[in-house]
Amino acid sequence: MHILITEDEPLLARFIARGLQAAGYDTSIAGDGVDALEQIEAHEWDLVVLDLLLPGLDGFDVLAAVAERQRPPRVLVLSARQEVATRVAALDHGASDYLTKPFSFEELLARVRAQTRDGPVRPRPAARFPSLHLDDATREVSLGEGRTVRLSAREYDVLA
């Protein structure tokens, strides 16, 4: 399993990477949001461990870009932001899990195992109805004669 760790604190990033490598995972580190997006575009990742408070682009910007991908990796948010509203917003914007700092490494490892046990996320095939077309790959909805509407991840999931 290939895991991208996006964390701007170098000591914490190396700690997480070493622990995951000891558990048999292949890891890389991105130190900011821009680096994370470049690595996400350049490689296929099974999981992205994502801090929300990043220099350059914040974690929500990274989540939005990941949601645009045809085959998005799962995203486990690992953040010091503990507010319920922030956790809900991250999950609604495409994160598959959320863990707050400080954290237990054993819990992080269990959550990584849970995220990767079913393999990478694969979109469902496009669904067609007489006047409605849902495309999981692009999260677009076509109405009637070609009018296309792009939805947020949450809106698309509710409609689907």
Strand content: 15-25%
Topology order in helix (H) and strand (E) letters = EHEHEHEHEHEEEEH
Give the N-to-C terminal Cα separation: 29 Å
* Second CATH tier, the architecture of the largest domain: 3-Layer(aba) Sandwich
Provide mean pLDDT, rounded.
Answer: 86
Shape: elongated
- Supply the number of helical segments: 6
Q: So, the CATH homologous superfamily of the largest domain?
A: Response regulator
Helix content: 25-40%
- CATH fold node name of the largest domain: Rossmann fold
Task: Give structural notes.
- A hairpin with a 3-residue loop joins strand 8 (140-143) and strand 9.
- Helix 2 (33-42) packs parallel to helix 3.
- It is elongated and about 55 Å long.
- It has a five-stranded parallel β-sheet, with helices on both faces. The chain has a four-stranded antiparallel β-sheet with strand order 6-7-8-9, with no helix packed on it.
- The protein has helices spanning 10-22, 33-42, 59-68, 84-92, 105-116, 153-159; strands at 2-6, 26-30, 47-50, 74-79, 97-100, 127-129, 132-135, 140-143, 147-150.
- It starts with a strand and ends with a helix.
- With 160 residues, it is of the alpha/beta class.
- It folds into two domains: 2-116, Rossmann fold; 127-159, no CATH class.
